[in-house]
Design brief:
The complex is a heterodimer of chains A (about 350) and B (about 325).
Chain A: H1 2-20, H2 22-37, H3 44-69, H4 77-93, E1 96-98, E2 103-105, H5 109-132, H6 138-157, H7 178-181, E3 183-184, E4 187-188, H8 189-207, H9 209-219, H10 221-226, H11 231-257, H12 268-278, H13 290-310, H14 314-335
Antiparallel strand pairs in A: 1-2, 3-4
Helix pairs in contact in A: 2-13, 3-8, 3-9, 3-11, 3-12, 3-13, 4-5, 4-6, 4-11, 5-6, 5-11, 8-9, 9-11, 12-13
Chain B: H1 8-19, E1 39-44, H2 50-65, E2 69-74, H3 79-91, E3 96-99, H4 108-116, E4 121-124, E5 136-140, H5 142-156, E6 161-167, H6 173-186, E7 192-199, H7 204-217, E8 223-226, H8 229-241, E9 248-253, H9 256-263, E10 269-272, H10 275-292, E11 300-303, E12 306-308
Parallel strand pairs in B: 1-2, 1-3, 3-4, 4-5, 5-11, 6-7, 6-8, 8-9, 9-10
Antiparallel strand pairs in B: 10-12
The chains are: A mainly alpha (about 350), B alpha/beta (about 325).
């Protein structure tokens, strides 16, 4: 009797573990399938490029995870990515025009990156203030920001692309393309950034008081508030983190293309949300982990790159991606019953 | 956190100031009302695509030369918004509408409504699926342009080898027509082998990422032909990042970015759509119609695309010869 119970527990437990790891299982399954179907899949070159493609979505998704864990959503990430690229493009091409002094200042690339990231943080802060102080529903506040940031991106160049962001040695602002193209120990910089941001995000979420507060706010906001969690500040912070992550992704894209296009990042928010959900974070907030998000982003990346390698029609790619996302949400619902 | 970043608002203001386009002395969206001048309303898709911006500005400039007041509006490819803009034109008692429409079927009602209110419509860039309600439908010959690009692609490839195709949003008519034009030429050469055909949604980022993956699957790829220049420029950036300078890149549109890429040797050719010429033609025909009661031209007109190559790239500017 006792033995039977233990066995039953063991089966239930391992099923639950397997279920919790479903994203990892799906990832492993996809890798096996694509390796069999395409000899080009499991090569160093392809895996490096795959990691580079995953990096952009993963970096967006890390910020999105914090927002979703806190019970919110950030629809503005794609527009903010586009705007950050345009800010960098404008600063490299036109410099900073100071009409009151009649001068144009060209900055070093480090400063340009910093200013674009600061703009991301500021937009995140506006989102955060709207949500926490003015009690606007996150969906609405960030939907508004989706339009505002996209409009500003278009205004910044009057709709045009900033081409050739290589900079001018005479102005001392060269080096921007390195962000997307440089490699350290054979691994592209964007992948290192993903590792850094992912690890930092995981540490922040799991090991710090701030992380605990995010889970608390997302789990039960009122209870968190009564037990002394600074709810408003936590909300402000998560949107700022998301803004900085979005700006980082936008800068990487502009750097890789060596051009800033104002429409960059359209529908990125959907890919980021999909990565978070695939990674097992509950859209209701309060439940999930950063590792899952990185795996979720990898699933999406492997899926889209693998299907391109196989030459599957675009239409089927869209259908398959949709099916995977729906299955993940179904699994999310089933998880609640475990 | 609250007091941590007091500098940030100031920073953003500064950054945004850097990004603002400067004094907008040519603000065509709201020309001051000069009484007595007839109004020409110019409606196109969003100006975030330089193509539509170029055609709208060319039409407005020609209309002002011909002594019209202008009103430039955008419909963002939304037929409902287009309908509202036509209502605006009717309310403002426009003399004529120059329209790059929001859908071959979805725009018929709006054009018909303008006609019923006595406002002639002159369509540019895209046709509608009915004749007799617009005074003119002037489009660039996408099929001819695609065969032109296809021929140059075959020549550059030496009539043989593995190539990839990047297609635009496949639900768009132009994506389909351009792809058909490419293949009607390329498929006549048995040595030309299509390695893969991928959609990249007209997007530079997708063109870049798809190209990176495609060269993994097909390291012996010799060329790529793209349904528009945005995707082609993205693909060219991916090839450059991979240190691959032998893959031939051919696009479509004649965008300023592509012409710059051709001059820099990152792309080899593109088919230029004469958007500026078409816009000017439409305005001139509208002027002719308002003065004489006839455009003197058939309703359906098609203007040929031109091939831009490294040899002649210097002669081309914004969607037209300099």
């Amino acid at each position: 009797m006792r033995h039977g119970l233990a066995a039953e527990w063991q089966t239930r437990f391992s099923a639950a573990v397997l279920f919790r790891l479903r994203a990892l299982v799906a990832l492993a399954g996809l890798i096996v399938v694509f390796s069999i179907l395409s000899p080009a899949f499991l090569t160093t070159g392809n895996l490096v490029i795959l990691a580079k493609h995953v990096a952009i979505n993963a970096i967006l998704a890390v910020g999105m995870t914090f927002v979703i864990l806190s019970g919110g959503i950030d629809l503005s990430v794609g527009s903010v990515a586009g705007l950050a690229g345009m800010i960098a493009g404008a600063l490299i091409h036109r410099g900073l025009v100071l009409p009151m002094f009649g001068v144009v200042v060209y900055f070093h690339v480090w400063l340009i990156l910093l200013m674009a990231l600061a703009a991301g943080a500021l937009i995140g802060a506006v989102n955060g203030l709207l949500v926490s102080r003015f009690r606007v529903a996150p969906f609405i506040a960030t939907l508004g920001m989706l339009y505002m940031a996209r409009g500003l991106a278009l205004l910044s160049s009057n709709g045009a692309t900033f081409p050739n962001l290589a900079g001018d040695p005479e102005l001392g602002n060269t080096g921007f393309p390195l962000l997307g193209a440089a490699t350290v120990a054979g691994i592209p910089l964007p992948v290192w950034l993903m590792i850094l941001i992912g690890a930092g995000g995981a540490f922040l979420a799991a090991k710090t008081p701030f992380g605990r507060h995010v889970y608390a706010v997302g789990g039960k906001e009122r209870a968190a508030e009564l037990s002394g969690v600074p709810v408003k500040r936590v909300k402000l912070m998560v949107y700022m983190i998301s803004g900085v992550c979005s700006a980082t992704a936008g800068l990487i894209i502009a750097s890789q293309l060596v051009a800033a296009h104002p429409a960059t990042g359209e529908t990125f928010e959907l890919n980021a949300i999909a990565a978070v959900v695939l990674g097992g974070t509950s859209l209701m907030g309060g439940k999930g982990a950063m590792g899952g998000t990185i795996i979720g982003a990898s699933v999406i990346g492997v899926l889209s790159d693998g299907l391109v390698l196989l030459g599957v029609s675009e239409f089927w790619q869209i259908v398959i991606k949709g099916v995977v996302i729906v299955l993940a949400v179904v699994a999310d619902q089933l998880q609640l019953r475990f | 956190m609250k007091g941590a970043n007091p500098l940030m608002p100031a920073l953003l203001l500064v950054v945004l100031a850097a990004c603002s386009p400067g004094p907008r002395d040519r603000n065509e969206e709201a020309s001051p009302k000069r009484p007595g001048k007839p109004l020409m309303v110019i409606i196109t898709p969003s100006h975030d695509n330089p193509f539509f911006k170029a055609e709208a500005e060319a039409a407005a400039a020609r209309a002002i030369e011909l002594n019209y007041e202008t009103l430039v509006l955008t419909h963002d490819d939304d037929a409902n918004k287009q309908d509202q803009l036509v209502d605006t034109a009717i309310a403002r008692k426009a003399a004529a509408i120059i329209l790059d429409n929001a859908g071959a079927d979805a725009s018929i009602a709006a054009v018909g409504k303008a006609k019923a209110n006595g406002i002639p419509c002159f369509l540019i860039d895209r046709e509608i699926n009915v004749t007799g309600i617009a005074l003119a439908q002037i489009v660039s010959n996408n099929y001819q342009g695609a065969t032109l690009a296809g021929q140059e692609f075959v020549r550059l490839m030496g009539e043989e080898g593995k190539y990839a195709e990047l297609v635009g949003r496949e639900s768009d008519t132009n994506a389909w027509i351009r792809s058909k034009g490419f293949h009607d030429v390329i498929d006549r050469y048995p040595g030309m082998r299509l390695a893969t055909r991928q959609g990249a949604n007209w997007s530079q980022t997708e063109g870049f990422q798809k190209m990176e993956t495609i060269i993994q699957a097909h390291p012996d790829l010799k060329g790529v032909i793209a349904g528009n220049d945005t995707m082609a420029v993205g693909a060219a950036a991916a090839l450059k990042a991979a240190g691959n300078s032998r893959v031939i890149v051919v696009g479509f549109d004649g965008s300023p970015d592509a012409i710059a890429a051709i001059k820099a040797g990152r792309m080899q050719a593109t088919a230029l759509q004469p958007a500026v010429r078409i816009a000017r033609m439409a305005v001139e025909q509208a002027d002719m119609y308002l003065k004489t009661g006839s455009t003197g031209q058939p309703e359906k007109q098609s203007v040929n695309c031109e091939l831009v190559t490294p040899e002649n790239a210097d002669r081309y500017g914004l969607f037209g010869p300099k």
